[in-house]
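Record 1 of the preview.
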Amino acid sequence: MREALFIKKNKDRWLKNQQEPPGSPDDLARSFTQLVDDLAYAKTFYPTSKTTGYLNKQASDMYLSIYQNRKEESGRLSYFWKYELPLVIRKHHKTILFALIVFVTFFLLAFFIAARDHEIANSFFGDNYVQKTMENIADGNPFGIYETGNPVLSWLGIMINNIRVAFLFFISGIFCGIPTMYKLAETGAMVGVFDQLFASKGFGLQFWMVVFVHGTLEITAIILAGAAGFILGKSFLFPGTRKRMEAFRDGARDGVKIMIGILPAFIIAAFFEGLFTRLYNNVSWFTTFLTTASVLFVIWYFIIYPIQLARKDRLIIKEGVKGHA
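->
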């Protein structure tokens, strides 16, 4: 069947599903089964077509609708962390990858530029901070800056500041994502300059093992906040086959879910920075364990698990429809 005929034959039903979602469980199950069949057909015969993308989006929305209405024994929060957030993450993996590329690109640029121009560190962190760090390095305690201040007050102050910055990343996405890109690039550059500050003195490896006790979760959350801002801007600029405001509303909803999802990461990262990073001299095995565990968690929860969940999508949905009916 030609694609034009396929669209003509089913367009009214697709539009009805989108504009007037089925109300009863039986209608929902029937509509979803038909939609899955249409999607399978489109993937087989028109794999790169916009029609396939449209059907995939509609099927995903209906899937979420089914699961949002299910009664989960473990409660709404459990469902959010176990299913809803990972599926939103998977849905926007390409945008998150773009945010990661922006961050890493400017991290590397700043790292190598700072190797040639040491004054850059002063412009980023201020003369006093750099001087104190150099003194700590000379004294054989390069990361002594993390040992200062009250642990609890440091935790609260860092947490509040990071959450504030992250929401600026997200909200500024409304301006076509340009301010978000600037802020994300600036943060990547700042980390690159900070890394070079220690690498130039022979503490490059220690930088990763100490700073990333808290930095793994913190930087991951910052990148995700940047991605949420890009999602917000992209949904308005490129609505696809949907109305612009409808696409913008969906993008805003997904962005908010991501922002809610990264709040615990900021809280835990600030807790680690305030209380545990300072222990790198006394119990280095523990800080190394925290860094390793954080890296493994980020890889699993934000990359592997969402992909696994999406691969099981069709089977899970069919079971969900049966249970819902």
